[in-house]
Amino acid sequence: MLRCILLKNRFVFNKILDDLYLIRQIDLDTKYFESIWEIPEGVVYNSYVLNTSNGSIVFDTVKKNYCSEYIEFLDKNINLKNVKYIVSHHGEPDHSGCVKELSDETNAVVIGHPILGRELSSFYNLTRFKPVNDGESLKIGEYTLVFHYLPWLHWPETIVSHIVEKNVLLTCDIFGSYGVYFNEIYFDELSVEKQREYLIRARKYFANIIGYYREWVLKNIEKTSSIGLKPEIALPAHGLAYRGDSIDLIKEYYLKWSRGEVIDKKIVIVYTSMYRFVEETVNDLASILGENGFKPIVFGFNDTYRSSISDIIGELIDCETIVLATSSYDSSVFPIAKLVAELIVKKIPRNKNIVVLGAYGWGYRVSRELSDIFVKNGFNVKTFDYQAGQHKSIIREIFDKITGSS
Amino acid sequence: MLRCILLKNRFVFNKILDDLYLIRQIDLDTKYFESIWEIPEGVVYNSYVLNTSNGSIVFDTVKKNYCSEYIEFLDKNINLKNVKYIVSHHGEPDHSGCVKELSDETNAVVIGHPILGRELSSFYNLTRFKPVNDGESLKIGEYTLVFHYLPWLHWPETIVSHIVEKNVLLTCDIFGSYGVYFNEIYFDELSVEKQREYLIRARKYFANIIGYYREWVLKNIEKTSSIGLKPEIALPAHGLAYRGDSIDLIKEYYLKWSRGEVIDKKIVIVYTSMYRFVEETVNDLASILGENGFKPIVFGFNDTYRSSISDIIGELIDCETIVLATSSYDSSVFPIAKLVAELIVKKIPRNKNIVVLGAYGWGYRVSRELSDIFVKNGFNVKTFDYQAGQHKSIIREIFDKITGSS
């Protein structure tokens, strides 16, 4: 039922400040963000409009599936003829998807990083493009825009736009989150409980999308400090906006997540189980860990169920210890366990303990092959192999291995 | 509705010949066979019983989730007190799942390869075990059983049982298939159309489960010839039974699939597409290939849809050329494309052409990293990189690459 209602309300229009407006495209159709991350909570693409006495500027557009609806909706809410510029903060098609159509419709020039120009030309044959330099400003009517390069968050051409007179920063994917909200524009409008849920979604988004570029988060936060950027409002291209203290809050989380700061005693166990032997081990292990004051969170893949990989990667980012428990398969690692291991290597900071538990049936010891993936990427790894069905006699040994006693 | 009916009929009892019976466990609950292969068509576990004047023998059991129902069902159809032996052809728990319970219930001794003894001891703490040697026979009542080792199909301890007086061979996973059938026992009872469908399911099963062990298929078929095994009936542990000519037919297919014999002009394209650029390429490519007499089959992964990996691997086994088209991701291969590549390396014979198409946005050339996976495993690989959005200008070049003109 909700989806039916949403089909009529795929776009939402809100005022942020005088002259500054938000257009949200509600997306509950995408099952796999970036074609890999499961997002049952949906996602929103935020496009912004600044009206000036000398024309309007649109900041980012929406996903390319819905361009005609987007432009039709824009047309109802702003004067399309007035659009002079489209700022495209980066080229990923969930935001750049309609710049070509909008530029064709309005004759507006697209502004962005020089690399973006090449992308838009390749993706959409767009030629109406004006590159900007790092720190370059654009005066339009009563407003000044300054563009800052914050590269590799998460594409190389990422820029942010500072509307100087309003001290508003448009941040593109930075500070973005999954999830769909109708009644709130700002994070601080959520209840305390909803804020907690939102931060879990923001962490998941961070880990999935920004995780691989975490070193660049640190560099770029340093850069924004050094150039004295202290916006009163931060407007990301997904999820809710931030103002006042909540900007510092999300920035603090970005620092923690990038550094891999851990929540005390938080252990995430991910397992694959062909015939429930590994699952039994993991269940017993989680019990013992819980009884001893640890906080285990368990994700699994078996013959009837698959955990969400996007949730797994989200939870891993602030745990102390990762346990990856798996069986062998065709004299090698179980394929899904390898996929998870490789995503961990990409997305998760190295300062975590990893314990690999390998269960075998007729011989092959799987832990070494899996742990090699981690070791060569700088993780601290312990391994433990055991014969399937025999975990009860050694569960204490496994516990000691995980908790550092051995 | 079908599922509701099935819940009451989870087990089916059939007579094969005088004294020889089949118990089928219908499984429409398992979504991922071996916790990886999607099987919407379901699967059946076949257990067989031979009644002799000196007691009964049960050959294989069913998946461990349903032991009490299985034993209850057996009890209704045979005299449980008469069961003297349980032959367990290999240790994988979809067949060995209830040997412990059945052995405890009946005091029957479990017979199998020596390696199986260690597995059953580890998995289920089973000790009532009698190992048999390759070629060893067991006389029981009026029947003679001969056990043959056919190792690595697909576990090392695989044996088959020959009931000499009936010239019936019980083959465990060999000649198995996915799919659930109620009205037929034998493959040759299917209509021509249903036989065609069944062979696609059997090929999928073969590729998924036996694919990695295809060299052992060739060795073991040679072995069965050299020892003069020519059964009149072959009874696998999944799917339908074979008799007469259809035994030769399925054996021929096993030889073809193991050798990687190709269907002329069959091309399978597998793609991952983050924002539909690769998808557009693949659609245009499939059109051109079709227009030129090739038979392209397309599988894809995008933001709303994931093809079935089990179907992909099934289709690949007899194609001439595999095209893997993908985008780059975090300066590397898109993770699902890598998973598919690694499954191809495991399951598919090397005598196929592989063409890797890599689409990039801002720079990273993905084809090399993917093709390396294939090259180091002995495949013949061609690569082609192009900037996303630019395929129309080069689609002919891609066509030539695939069809061998360049």
TrEMBL record, chains A, B:
User: InterPro entries, per this entry?
Assistant: Flavoprotein-like_sf (IPR029039), Metallo-B-lactamas (IPR001279), ODP_dom (IPR045761), RibonucZ/Hydroxyglut_hydro (IPR036866)
Q: Which SUPFAM superfamilies match?
A: Flavoproteins, Metallo-hydrolase/oxidoreductase
Instruction: Describe the location of the Metallo-beta-lactamase domain by residue ranges.
Output: 44-238
Write down the Pfam families for this protein, in alphabetical order.
ODP (PF19583)
PANTHER family the UniProt entry points to: ANAEROBIC NITRIC OXIDE REDUCTASE FLAVORUBREDOXIN (PTHR43717:SF1)
Name of the protein this chain belongs to: FprA family A-type flavoprotein
